[in-house]
Amino acid sequence: MVSATDARWISTFLDAQAAELDAARNTRLAYGRDLKDYADWLAGRGMALATAARETVEDYLVWCDAQGLSKATRARRLSAIRQLYRFAHDEGWRDDNPAIRIKGPGATQRLPQSLSLDEVERLLDAARGKGRTPAERIRNTALMEVLYATGMRVSELVELPVAAARGDPKMILVRGKGGKERMVPLSTPARMALAAWLVQRDADDAAARKVGRPASKFLFPGNGADGHLTRQHFYLMTKDFAVQGGVDPSKVTPHTLRHAFATHLLAGGADLRVIQLLMGHADLATTE
């Protein structure tokens, strides 16, 4: 069981990530899981964060490898451990960073599968016809048209505030990783789909208020605790659209649609640095 001291180290570090670096919620959750696993491993061997040596961290990474964890997961865990110890050193909790000189396993370069223009069209057509009610079909159309038109991350899409879509904008403000904001253009089909969804959504909100339910601040409301459509739900929706449209479901995720946005722009002659800005990549190599 993790000691109270180790738990406090981790929670203080995560709070600092949120306050000082404005780290994305999903990033903080991943760091929290990784660091708890490391602390659990230490506790099981009678050790603690304050006393672990370089060899201890290396032994933990070897253990992770033996558990079958991927290179990407092991690299992420090492990164979280390094940053925790860097923070501990800055706070005066430790005199050293035992993980700073450990070489990570490196992630295997793996490009996401891309989708052809024809496959994207079939997915968009499927979204227009998929849904239990007319309202769901209008919402599904807006989700897919906006995703393909902008190349947003799925978390950015489902967390869009409704205010961002008001007034038939030609560009929409997106809050991305680390709270960084960027403007992305909307295609004509995306603007039309959004306009239709706003009419439907406003009617739904008006009906909800009549029975005492508050209006949602999100463009795509959901019934869960977050108040918006979840990433997991939308992921499953894209699989349904693939089946409906006759596209191999294994090729279709929100991320492959994001990749298709970039690939099709590049094929159309767009500058790589422009695509980098639209996708919110801090490093051009990520876009390449």
Can you describe this structure in just a few lines?
By secondary structure, this protein is mainly alpha-helical. It contains twelve helices and two strands.
- CATH class of the largest domain reads Mainly Alpha
Number of strands: 2
| CATH fold group of the largest domain | hpI Integrase, Chain A
How is the biggest beta sheet arranged? 2 strands, antiparallel
Assembly level: single chain
Radius of gyration: 22 Å
Structural class: mainly alpha
Average pLDDT level: 86
Order of helices and strands: HHHHHHHEEHHHHH
Number of domains: 2
Q: So how many helices?
A: 12
Strand order of the largest sheet: 1-2
Outline type: elongated
Give the low-pLDDT segments: 282-288
Task: Please give the CATH architecture of the largest domain.
Answer: Orthogonal Bundle
Strand percentage, roughly?
under 5%
The termini sit apart by 43 Å
**What's the name of the CATH homologous superfamily of the largest domain?**
Intergrase catalytic core
